[in-house]
Amino acid sequence: MLNLKLKYKRRGAYTEERKERTEHKVIVDAPLSDTMIYPLNMHIGKPAEPIVEVGDHVKMGQLIAEKQGFVSANIYASVSGTVEAIKDMPSMHGPNRAIVIQNDFKDTPAPLLVEPNQHLTPQEKLALVEKAGIVGMGGATFPTHVKLSPPKEKQIDTLIINGAECETYSTADHRLMIESADDIIAGVKELLSLFPIKQTYIAIETNVHDSVEALKRAIGDDTRIKIKELETLYPQGAEKQLIKTLVNREVPSAGLPLDVHTIVANVSTVRAVYLAIQKGLPLLDRVTTLTGEPIKDPQNFRVRIGTPIQVLIDASGGFVSKTGKMLHGGPMMGKPITSGQVPITKGTSVVTFLPKEEVKEDERTPCIKCAECLNVCPVSLQPILISNAYEKGDIDEAERLGAMDCIDCGNCSFICPANIPLLDNIRQAKTEIRARKEKA
Amino acid sequence: MVNLQDMTLKMTASPHLKSPKKTDWIMKQVVIALLFPLAAAIYFFGIKSLFMVIVGILSSVLFEYAYQKIKDQPVRINDYSAVITGMLLGLSVPVTAPYWSIVVGSFFAIVIIKQLPGGIGRNMFNPAVGARVMLKVFFSPWITNWVTPGRGTDVVSTATPLESIGHFSRTVGEDVPGLWDLFLGVNLGGNIGETSKAMILLAFIYLVVRGVINMKIPLLYVITVAVISSIYGGYDTTYMMTHVLSGTLVFAAVFMATDYTSGALTPGGQTIFAIGAGVLTIGIRILFDFPGGVGFAILIMNALSPLIDKYLAPRIYGHKKRPKVSLS
């Protein structure tokens, strides 16, 4: 799509859209894998602790690892089978402790969390969300029950449902909004029953207009829920940006959306909330896009949590050309990985394969002070100044310039005409600032 | 079929895609934009205009190459920035200017202003503007012999409109060309690239659509001049428009005030830079019997921009105050 790119202060960058490979592809069930891998740290917060032992037989939907403390999440077996090992396995964060289950392909079900379609109190519903192991499925993997537990003095009045899938190749949420609009809206209504919410928005980008029809049909005549179409701009779907754009509130530095009386939840997460509360189901599967130019037949998969990426690669027909990078996530924020054993986890919305020719290191040239990094920074940092301060070893200056407010979106490094590793430097500065704080 | 195991996968951190618009792409866009005023120069002042620009480009690139070779630095002439400086210089003098004056200007711009502080991105002042002002101050007889366009040697010396409207004058003299002529550059003396505002406007539109320049800077600059001259001239539209369309203003607003390196970095700083340049330009024009206000105005704002940026650092999302920045 051609954008008329005017140069002024924006809330993001016009990164290239590459969704056409999968945006019209119906979600398909991924093949079942014989080996399933469940990293215990697949969410933000404390890793879960295994409650099964090697050799145990587990049923599909059985709790296998228990959350530790408040900011943590339960993990369930997404197949039935035998616990083969509890050991370090490849994950998006490098080798990590994981439960490995040998699938018996019987899908023997465990009892549901609760009988379906019961009348539940808000407390019971919240407890179910916590029990079901639901985390932010847009990629952040922040435990959802924490988001839904505001301290007493912080009344929630705004709910934002995030369907603004701004990463270059991602289409999983887009397809989910088209194909499971009813489930999503049912989930929204469950959230509305928990708080005295005054305004509810479903945020999507204008490039996924077809999902609006589906959502509108599902909403029907419920006037509480409004759809907002936003400019296709990266990182439109970042939590803090959505809040600013939709309700003109700013989350205070180092704060949470709760601080401005707002809850932001991704569409996939909302669907999981619906499945937990009304169907009694823990989080067992999700929709993940596997895509990129080197992939023969990119797909949107409904995939069991724990399925190794290699299974999806095979189901997509393998490679037609050489890939230079495999990313857990999209090209702007994804983590590079090298092993096909890395599993799909709760936060895996997309796995991206970049063509070899696009993965190159361009020579760094002098900064020409074009100010583009300032123009595209969604939180109004001056990335080049933070980068300069870091390179001069002036960590105090980097902190004064707001390094800790960086949201890691990658726009500055993306746009820089001089190939300065701005985000790398800002990340390093953040690491040093944190290290100093811990020492102090 | 290719297997994952057979491929070498890179592990560098995000973002994994980069915008294809690199420094040389940006500079090439400016070169393309400068072809508009160059075409007008050739049309109005003859083929010598082209040779003047070629001399500017060759001497600028050569000085940059020689300097970087001598200092054993990486040679960066491929970034096209020296080409721009050369083109600006060639277009910034009247058709009567001797070629050597352009070469002297190139030396001053490239070696003194740009390379001595450290090369591209390090210069406080805009090289072309600095060289222009230097030429004007020290080589005035040669480069301020304004002539109206004529074919061949049939040129007529002329006063510039600025000498009529400047220096406390509040009215437009009889000898000043009409606004339409000022806009198109017809029968107008001046620096060869600056007479046709119509072509500069096209270049402006090109640069804005390409996302190379921030349109706020030229617009605020020109509007500031327009507003102050309008008030000073008793809301005389002709007087105001004569100020806007005369001299280097429009050319400098589009091609020189928008220079990244010597301009302001922050959004607020860019606004102050543009308005400040406008105030200084019209101030110099009115107060002094000296038509070259634009050059000095931009140089003064160049010098002030680091300070302006320091105080106008953008407020970060989620903070109440602007961050405190030390002056680097």
TrEMBL record, chain A:
Necessary cofactors: [4Fe-4S] cluster
Main localization, broad class: membrane
Keywords for this protein: 4Fe-4S, Cell membrane, Electron transport, Iron, Iron-sulfur, Membrane, Metal-binding, Repeat, Translocase, Transport
Annotated positions binding [4Fe-4S] cluster 2: C377, C406, C409, C412
InterPro entries in alphabetical order: 4Fe4S_Fe-S-bd, 4Fe4S_Fe_S_CS, Ion_transpt_RnfC/RsxC, Nuo51_FMN-bd, Nuo51_FMN-bd_sf, RnfC_N, Soluble_ligand-bd
Chain ranges of the 4Fe-4S ferredoxin-type domain: 357-389, 397-426
GO BP terms, alphabetized: electron transport chain
Any one GO cellular component localisation term in the record: plasma membrane
Entries under Gene3D superfamilies matching the protein: 3.30.70.20, NADH-ubiquinone oxidoreductase 51kDa subunit (3.40.50.11540)
Protein name stated in the entry: Ion-translocating oxidoreductase complex subunit C
Subunit architecture: The complex is composed of six subunits: RnfA, RnfB, RnfC, RnfD, RnfE and RnfG.
PROSITE patterns to which the protein is assigned, alphabetical: 4FE4S_FER_1, 4FE4S_FER_2
Phylogenetic classification of the source organism: Bacteria, Bacillati, Bacillota, Bacilli, Bacillales
Purpose of the protein: Part of a membrane-bound complex that couples electron transfer with translocation of ions across the membrane.
Protein family (similarity comment): Belongs to the 4Fe4S bacterial-type ferredoxin family. RnfC subfamily.
Keyword Amino-acid biosynthesis recorded: no
Protein location: Cell membrane
Positions of [4Fe-4S] cluster 1 binding: C367, C370, C373, C416
Parts forming coiled coils: none
Cofactor note: Binds 2 [4Fe-4S] clusters per subunit.
EC numbers: 7.-.-.-
GO molecular function, a single term: electron transfer activity
Top enzyme category: translocase
Topology versus the membrane: Peripheral membrane protein
From TrEMBL, chain B:
Membrane topology according to the record: Multi-pass membrane protein
Keyword Phosphoprotein listed: yes
GO-annotated cellular components: plasma membrane
InterPro entries: NqrB/RnfD, RnfD_bac
Names of required cofactors: FMN
Top EC category: translocase
Gene Ontology biological process terms, A to Z: electron transport chain; transmembrane transport
Modified residues annotated as FMN phosphoryl threonine in this record: T160
Database matches in Pfam families: NQR2_RnfD_RnfE
Keyword Glycoprotein among record annotations: no
Xref: PANTHER family: ELECTRON TRANSPORT COMPLEX PROTEIN RNFD (PTHR30578), ION-TRANSLOCATING OXIDOREDUCTASE COMPLEX SUBUNIT D (PTHR30578:SF0)
Quaternary assembly: The complex is composed of six subunits: RnfA, RnfB, RnfC, RnfD, RnfE and RnfG.
Function: Part of a membrane-bound complex that couples electron transfer with translocation of ions across the membrane.
Protein name: Ion-translocating oxidoreductase complex subunit D
Lineage of the species this protein comes from: Bacteria, Bacillati, Bacillota, Bacilli, Bacillales
Name of the gene encoding the protein in the UniProt record: rnfD
